[in-house]
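Hi L., both proteins are below.
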Amino acid sequence: MALTIIALMKQVPVPSEMRMGEDGLMDRTKAKSMINKDCQFALEAGLQLKKENPEAKLIVCSMGPPAFEQSLKKALAMGYDEAYLLSDRKLAGSDTYATGLALATLIKHLGYGKGANEDFIIVAGRQTSDGDTAHVPSQVAENLVVPQATFIESTHLKDNKIEAKRIIEGGYQILEVPIPCVLSFTPTGIPPRRPSLAGTIKAREKEINILNIADIGLSEEKVGLSGSPTIVAKVVDIKSERAPAKIVSGHNEKEVVDEFIKKFKEGKNVLEKEEKKKKEQKIDESLKVVDFRNGARGILTWAEVANGKIARSSLELLTPAKSLAKELGEDTKVITVLIGKDVKPLAKELISYGSDEVIVVEDDRLKEYQILPFAEIFYQIIKEKNPEIALFAATTAGRELAPRIGVKTDSGVTADCTELKIGKHIYRDKKTKEKFVYAPLLESIRPTFGESKLATILGFTCPQISTARAGTFPVPQKVEKREGKISEFKPKLSDELFVTKIVKTVRGEGGLQSLFEADIIVSGGRGTSSDRMELVKELDKILKEKGIKSEWAASRVMVDEGVAEYARQIGQTGKTVRPKVYIAVGISGAIQHLAGMKESETIIAINHNPKEPIFRNSDFGIVGEYEDILPELIDRVKKGEFTFGLKA
């Protein structure tokens, strides 16, 4: 049977036109839209796979309103053979769990899946710009019970297997993934082609097959708000708490740098804050309180291991976990799962940082993280321990693992959280009109709508699963003599869980921990592309030579162009850092980048365009050319005249 390549594609609002409806959901009715950037790269990846297998059929699928037809037409013009749109008003309000189920059901309806046609590859974008969760590829894969590989940069089809390069923190992996499978792509691979004139004319003659949920045999209770285990409870605006920047400019770089140093030594402007009383939610004490947990207790976390060490992001997780346990009371325990080969000695370290119990799972086959066995291990532990909350770091592994576990446990997942707390929710039964209070439950708070708003997400099934943005929470204080329980768990793991092979892992130190520990970060954006960030790296190098804890980083565009590795990316889809000094060089100040550095103690912007938004989010600004300003700053650091207020 010929191979079929199925591309999952989403049409998203242009970021500048994102709007929120009164119900807290995305209002897409008036916004201009486009094919999601990551999905464009997935479409191209599908076409590249067809080049290696000319007999393959290309299908593109999407879910959304009829307006999505325009993007499906473009996919057909690029070279896809068939297009399917799942469109139904009953799908409105679907969270990622319900979306993954709906798309998987559509694919099964088309005749693909276990026990049907298994000769298929699903390609998808890593994530969408209007959600940034990266959940759906994992959820589709679990619903179809097939292997997956996410954060993929490039692929080759060889002997009915996919050889894929997967981006990980600090490096990459080469994976061998069997067919059928789901692959999600980063926007760093082969750039998507433009439709040809001949392709565009051909596409006009092709029909878009529009289906509703009844057509594919999907019950309305399984989709929309009723089928979604999570809801958006509240959305508030994010307001800047940084005072206007002190800006210097001129035609002589020496004079400009002199003036900047003078202003820097004088100190930054201070914002006068208006104290506002927090509005507390008033709840009628006569309302019945419903504990939906059904006996679920405890908080589960995952300790990710890299290079034989516990990842910093996993230690950070223990800070909100301990805080949530304290809020819940009732002697709530923090239980950490530690999986790998010869990892038991790390268990005591986790206890010293705050875990009450460490469950150790050791197996020679688990030396490196693999999603299928790790998801199955968590499923078995969750079944036995019945935790009310499960927390994962929003790393490349955590962002794919949590949603796969969510499907296994029928739980919703909230991505990329920056705050986690215990709260309550008033629920009104639509039939009886009676009001109830659900409590206690997890309030997962995450930036959304291009980092312009904070959304509070609630889940009503246990475990309530959330991923936490790396760098958001501090590492807890280590208490060497702290006591806790260390137990071993022996999961039942079939050979089918190990069908994906790790051919090679390349993981350097670059940016893995040092960005979180640096006192000063020199970060480059599109404006530093003229020399591929060489001056950025030179300033970082000279600061290190002066004994300053420095590191260099990059914006997403420089990673997308291959100038910097993903491990050095700062922003919504990269790392969140809080150095004493952050120097943004040639960075425009897109809200996605600001998300990863806005909490730095002092921000310095260097850009030739005084109208760029980065200056509105900085403490000091230098208006000038990158190639002129940085050599002058490097010279001052070399001479020992100026080190940005830091000492060795």
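That was the first. Here is the second:
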Amino acid sequence: MQEILYIEVPTADTVGVRIWLQQEWKPDLGQIINTPDGIRLQFSQETSKHPQEISESELSIFVWSVQRTTYLKVFRWGSKRVPSEKRILQQLVTNIRNRFPQQYPELPEIDLSKQSIFEALDPYYPKTVHFFQKMPQGEYDLKRVYWWEKRWRESVRHPQQPKQVVFKAQENVETRHGLSPDYDLIYIGGALGAIHAAVMAKLGYRVLLVERLSFGRMNREWNISRSELQGLLDLGLLTPDECESIIAREYVDGFNKFFDGNLPLHLKAEILHTPTVLNVALASDRWLSLCGEKLRQAGGEIWDETEFIRADIDSEKVTVQLVHLPTREPKQASGRLLIDAMGTASPIAWQLNGKRTFESVCPTVGAVLEGIEPQVWDSNYGDVLNSHGDISRGRQLIWELFPAQGKELTIYLFHYHQVHPDNPGSLLEMYEDFFTILPEYRRCDLEKLTWKKPTFGYIPGHFSVGSRDRAVAFDRLLAIGDAASLQSPLIFTGFGSLVRNLDRLTTLLDTALKHNLLSAENLNQIRAYQSNVAVTWLFSKGMMVPTGTTLPPQRINAMLNNFFGLLADAPPDVAETFIKDRTSWLMFNQLALKAAWKNPALLLWIWEMAGSRDMLRWLGSYWDFTLDALKNWLLSGWFPKWLQHSQPWLEKNHPALWLRLLNLKYSLNPKSI
């Protein structure tokens, strides 16, 4: 037998596909014999008289279901081509694509004044409704899932007319000589915003934190490594005892393995072990609560259940208009600087960047749960990245599993996704997948699991060509975290990126506030852009199925196995360096050349998936990366010491230049050459 065709049929109705093959499909040649999972297509006159006999001039066509979609394969029984084989396969693919086209479901319109969220969504997402009803605050959380998806879709589909929320106030005498601002810093967004707000409050700044939800409630869990946590200790935000208190679990090793059942032998890969990557699970509620305590102890304030409406900026301050959601009472506060930490749903980010706000996204769903048997999964280990099937309905689904507190596990399902108005990406569709295919990934009875809380969100990415490719600041306004979308386009970890850049962000912001360098030009220096991170966006682009495009089902798994196989074969520090955004120019080029040598079709695949325009844009990123490597080689040996020696006179006499040079120092890394 020889496999001659493998395709995905993008529908969960596998039975319907089988019935279509058996009853409706009319091949130009051959006689159909039904089988339990498909058909046999016979061409020989002799065997047609005896259908139970199988000759070499016969095709076997069958379908199966995995990941809530349908796959189809065609096998030839003999070693020689059957008559008109190519024409028959082309007819089959054309007919099946026409009968079962790729569809991108819309979000249903609902009216919660007449029914509950459970009643409204049950006809569309029955499994999602069923299991959210088992969670302690399931109704509240499901409303948040629906709200987030609705807001995301609206933002993607109307990027050129974003709602204006930032206004330049008219200057007058009262404005210029009015009362001083209430605060030095106003943070909008209480997740990543709370961490940095606590740091700045401890430095003596007057800080206000505004959060739309009840403060401390997260819809994602956070994982990090010990070495990255050290940054929080170095900044003085945490004591060693406090650091230990927020660690829910620390596992001994993490696995990275992608499905390779349909790949040739040379593209299969060993398991990549990453024992020091994302191996520390934080108790996010406890961690945020601790940040809130430290913020208040330092004199800061938290206004939760309060929604941002607009910001008015003048030469002296920024004034924010807010609404307290439980009472609908309007509120107002003024500050020297506004920090946007609202994440992917930030209306400020959409206003500043318009249609180029985000170019990629990871729709992510999951849950914190208990009950998976220890013989199924040993909670001393994490599953950092895993796929158990090929492309499913235009997405390569990827799992993450992290041990959490006690017997809890945090499990995520996500995919890399092109932001497209016809296909923005759906959280609710992903949740229906999650609750359907979780037992395929890790054997379990969903009804016997204890569902603690959902974890979900849109994690954005931006394909940066250079350090000024994206606006992260306005006069007296700065975006951080996911709102700035400057995390790794490959790893998509906004929390890890923020922690890794926390010292840089804090020092630069402290300098800007001390010298009142709060114009957009100066604040744009305070960004976490890294050319060695930006250059990896082509890799993430190669893991997205472009909207309206059909790829071979195994394509993305082949690319993932190709690259992660190289990391698995390399020394352990290579994988850690790459995943933690510390890739050097030499390492990147060595890995790229090895990947192309192992699979010469790789560049052609990426070109097909990314397109000529993005390939040319990537060359700009690569050139920027190369120039930065040269700059590191020329400056890293002497510039940091010279800058430290020059600080007393340089900062005093030329503060704006000092800020710019300080930013340059942080961008230097001797290991990035």
